[in-house]
Design a protein that fits this description.
mainly beta, 39% strand, four-stranded antiparallel sheet, 17 strands, single chain
């Protein structure tokens, strides 16, 4: 019924049920369509006023992880959200670190209770870097060994960027430092530089272990 002035941060379609479409927005938060995107809003819960990114588990698209705010009406993203029923209900994770922006989160394909998330700010424990939860988001631990300490590599602002974390292979997440213009891969003990990405702005892993990088410089 028309288009209002708004910002859609991301869009996700259910791989097993293409009629189920999820969008994450500024101001309006999360919206669900059960009609292939023809209509949004009536089928999903009001859980947050900003939903920054959404990703589904590669083998169970009803399990979704999102990054957003606490429903406080602010243009911030500082929490991870989880749904096990295709977006019909959500629960909020524990705090990752104080004062950081959490622009993206993803599942480990080998364990649906293991989540990874990026945090803005200077890299260091309790500050910026990558965090991991092995209890479905209840608690988080810093996973930043090998990232450039003291540098801010993950984006703080919400606008005009995509995802910064993906996990194509169990236990081996890959991170895109949008502000640093570089991609790192976790080798089991530390992060290792993989490639430069001066215009990198989105990172995605498909269910078959392939990794995709969107780069504004081509």
């Amino acid at each position: 019924d028309g288009i209002e002035l708004t910002v859609i941060h991301n869009l996700l379609q259910d791989a097993a049920d293409p009629g189920r479409v999820h969008i994450g927005m500024a101001d309006n938060g999360y919206l669900l369509s059960l009609e292939g995107g023809a209509r949004f809003g009536d089928d999903g819960p009001e859980v947050t006023s900003t939903m920054r990114t959404l990703q589904a588990h590669p083998t169970d698209p009803k399990r979704i992880v999102g990054a957003g705010n606490q429903g406080n009406g602010q243009w911030v993203s500082d929490r991870v959200w989880r749904s096990d029923d295709g977006g019909e209900s959500w629960r909020k994770s524990g705090e990752i670190a104080p004062g950081v922006t959490v622009n993206s989160a993803c599942f480990d394909p080998g364990d649906p209770k293991t989540l990874y998330a990026t945090a803005s700010g200077e890299v260091g424990p309790g500050k910026g870097g990558v965090y991991v939860s092995k209890d479905d988001g209840s608690t988080w631990n810093w996973l930043g060994t090998g990232l450039p300490a003291g540098r801010a590599i993950f984006h703080r602002e919400l606008w005009q960027i995509g995802r910064e974390i993906a996990c194509p292979v169990p236990g081996r997440p890959v991170a895109l430092g949008i502000d640093a213009g570089e991609v790192w891969g976790w080798d089991g003990t530390a992060w290792v530089p993989r490639t430069k990405a001066d215009g990198g702005n989105d990172l995605f892993a498909d269910p078959w272990g392939r990794l995709y990088l969107a780069d504004g410089s081509g």
